[in-house]
Design brief:
The chain is mainly alpha-helical. 64% of the residues lie in helices and 0% in strands. The chain contains 9 helices and no strands.
């Protein structure tokens, strides 16, 4: 889509499709890409296996550091849709959502969502669960566009940072031969 449309035209295309159900749905769906969701999943996986918790935690932490560094250094002047279209084009904004103006590229929520749900997908053997996790990550990514917090290019870049970081972390941590990584918090109480 980025090859066919400019990021601005693409955002205007997406911005024309709204209704009250999806306003509410995407308002809440975006929280699935919040860092708090990742922290809760890491805590839960500490009870399953330390290796899994470490993969999820490092994937999220490293990808967040990369994204936040990019947002606040190289791409600090990249504005969000609200600022970009200010005085040029009226956008639809979901009521009750505070739309930010700066630090648009790449999308942090999307980075977090793809790091979290892709790391979970790598840890499961069930293809249906993998598909569900991918759909959740895509939903978070689209929520950022729907809420006019980001452009499509922002979420695309965020998804790449999240996935590439997760792949690297997964292969590194998977190959660490540490006995303690196979235990969990539950093992401590046995």
């Amino acid at each position: 889509m980025l090859l066919i449309f400019s990021k601005h035209d693409l955002h205007l295309l997406f911005n024309q499709f709204h209704n009250s159900f999806f306003d509410s749905f995407f308002y809440y769906a975006t929280f699935l890409g919040d860092g708090i969701a990742s922290v809760l999943v890491v805590i839960m996986f500490l009870a399953v296996k330390y290796r899994y918790a470490l993969i999820i935690a490092l994937s999220n932490l490293i990808s967040a550091l990369i994204t936040q560094t990019l947002k606040h250094t190289i791409f600090e002047d990249v504005v969000r849709p609200k600022k970009f279209f200010e005085g040029i084009q009226d956008l639809y904004f979901v009521p009750g959502v505070e739309n930010y103006m700066y630090n648009s590229f790449p999308s942090g929520h999307t980075t977090s969502a793809f790091a979290l749900y892709f790391s979970l997908a790598l840890l499961t053997k069930n293809k249906w669960i993998e598909l569900l996790l991918f759909i959740i990550a895509l939903t978070v990514a689209y929520s950022r566009i729907y809420l006019s917090q980001h452009f499509f290019s922002d979420v695309y870049a965020g998804s790449l940072v999240g996935m590439l970081t997760t792949i690297l972390v997964y292969f590194v941590v998977r190959n660490w031969k540490k006995e303690w990584m196979e235990r969990s918090l539950i093992d401590s109480f046995k």
